[in-house]
Task: structure prediction
Amino acid sequence: MLFIKLLLAHFIGDFVMQSNKWVKHKEKNKFKSKYLYIHTLIHAVLLLVVLGFKKQYLLPIAFITITHFVIDGVKLLKPIKNDRILFFLDQLAHIAILFWVANDWSLNLDIQTYVTEKNLLFLLAIVLLTSVTSIVLKVIFSIWKKEIEEISKKDSSLENAGKYIGMLERLLVFSFILLNQWEAIGFLLAAKSVFRFGDLTNAKDRQLTEYILIGTLLSFGIAIIIGLTYLKLLSFFA
Result:
């Protein structure tokens, strides 16, 4: 319940009560921007409101407010040039602080509480489904490097779009397996086929069709294997 309250205050402060004008002014003027301090103050007030102005929460509120200012300050210095990555890292850092405080007001969180065999197994599955499988598929498709380069010339798309689509579909397949919703996997496969139907029928040769089919079947197959293996290994920790 505390975590939900803290999240509510955070999202209202960061997304509802912060205009694009403020964001641009902060990016331009950095620590000289008055909006950086107003934004931080707004977060402090929101925290006081959602926590009912109770005295026992003053120290955690002060801690969250200070760390929020520090995290926003680091973001303004742009240690990473990619704005999208920086945005998500910034939000992740804020939420991690809120989670930490919500679960241990004394700020003596025992990390071993979360480093369990089940959690590590789940993290391993996520890593395998995303980055590892993407690289494995890339290595497999290197067999047809010349053909894929020709397909890329004919079939322009967003940069790395296929990579991220593959990650998302594998994560969805994995989720459906955990929920024992095999029908949903069939629906997902059918939906993807419908979206790519134009590519499959309008292709001048068979290469694009074969490329899509092989990629889809490999991606789904690997996700299913990882999902079933995860459930099997999970039973040992029950």
The first helix runs from residue 2 to 16.
